[in-house]
Specification:
- The structure holds two protein chains of two kinds.
- Helix content of chain A is 0%, strand content 53%.
- Chain A has no helices and twelve strands.
- In chain A, strands 2, 5, 6, 10, 11 and 12 form a six-stranded mixed sheet that branches.
- By secondary structure, chain B is mainly β.
- In chain B, 0% of the residues lie in helices and 50% in strands.
- In chain B, the strands form two sheets. In chain B, strands 2, 4, 5, 6, 9, 10 and 11 form a seven-stranded mixed sheet that branches.
- In chain B, a hairpin with a 2-residue loop joins strand 5 and strand 6.
- Classes of the chains: A mainly beta, B mainly beta.
Chain lengths: 116, 115
Amino acid sequence: AQTVTQSQPEMSVQEAETVTLSCTYDTSENNYYLFWYKQPPSRQMILVIRQEAYKQQNATENRFSVNFQKAAKSFSLKISDSQLGDTAMYFCAFLNYGGSQGNLIFGKGTKLSVKP
Amino acid sequence: EAQVTQNPRYLITVTGKKLTVTCSQNMNHEYMSWYRQDPGLGLRQIYYSMNVEVTDKGDVPEGYKVSRKEKRNFPLILESPSPNQTSLYFCASSRLAPLTSYEQYFGPGTRLTVT
């Protein structure tokens, strides 16, 4: 069974600085995606960034980027130039599209606070 | 506007009183799923459906039922709610196609309290 671990329950960062959220996963599968979701106080789940396992290049979306280390099964999220609106829960998620297609497995989340 | 809708958004009920949380999507997605979110536990899958009349259990199905009679709708049924089902519930949907990265679109959530 696949598992996703986020080892930092809470983190804080000063506005305009950079922060990295950690995520590790365990799987024996080869065909999968990894995602980071943001959940602001509104509770809406918002997709931040995605990475397909067979792609070696790290995904980037504006101020958000990932460090995908497939052999180490690590998938960290870097937020550059942090903004107050980045304050949220962040969930790392794994999806294997080879077997039970579409089933997302989530980590327990990291609560990020951006301080002015 | 492409979206997943859930109703109700908030619900307070009593133990044993049957309830249904509706979920509807307008994107013609094959896949739909229900999750519950509890503090410190992240999101856990309750049930999912790969297409009409095809449903299967997720990680925490006890105490829940679902049905998929139409492609757009995937209601969650609690026939005899108990206080341990107090939670935040999310419905999600996606295409089952590699080019979409199986991206799941989430509804706004339903906050359920069972007293």
